[in-house]
Specification:
Radius of gyration: 18 Å
Largest sheet: none
Number of strands: 0
Oligomer: single chain
Strand content: under 5%
Distance between the termini: 45 Å
Number of helices: 5
């Protein structure tokens, strides 16, 4: 019984630690999942499209995080990479989906203002 209580306290402590590190906001994976869910609802993505877009976004986010941490990429280079990723995403979509994507993409992209650190 005592071991179970200690284990429960450890789990709660780890949970608080993770929340503190994240700032109680959604994790990058949760944000990606939410964005993909919204895209799927609007564009009716098939499974292949969904996985390709998820993969593109993951790679893009990892590249941007590494560039920010290393300080090797300036704002213009990051903007160029974002546009390059956008073109890759559009290539995965049908023409009809591309039109819908352009109409609704502001809903899927996280608000950048106020998030700058």
């Amino acid at each position: 019984m005592k071991k179970l209580l200690i284990f429960a306290i450890m789990i709660v402590g780890v949970n608080f630690s993770v929340q503190a590190q994240r700032g109680n906001g959604p994790s990058p994976q949760e944000r990606l999942d939410e964005m993909i869910t919204k895209m799927d609802a609007r564009l009716d993505l098939d499974d292949v499209q969904e996985e390709e877009i998820r993969s593109l976004h993951k790679g893009f986010y990892q590249e941007m995080r590494a560039a920010r941490q290393s300080g090797t990429m300036d704002r213009e280079a990051m903007r160029a990479k974002r546009q390059e990723n956008e073109k890759k995403i559009l290539a995965v979509l049908t023409e009809e989906q591309q039109e819908l994507y352009e109409q609704y993409k502001d809903e899927w992209q996280p608000a950048r203002k106020g998030r700058r650190r």
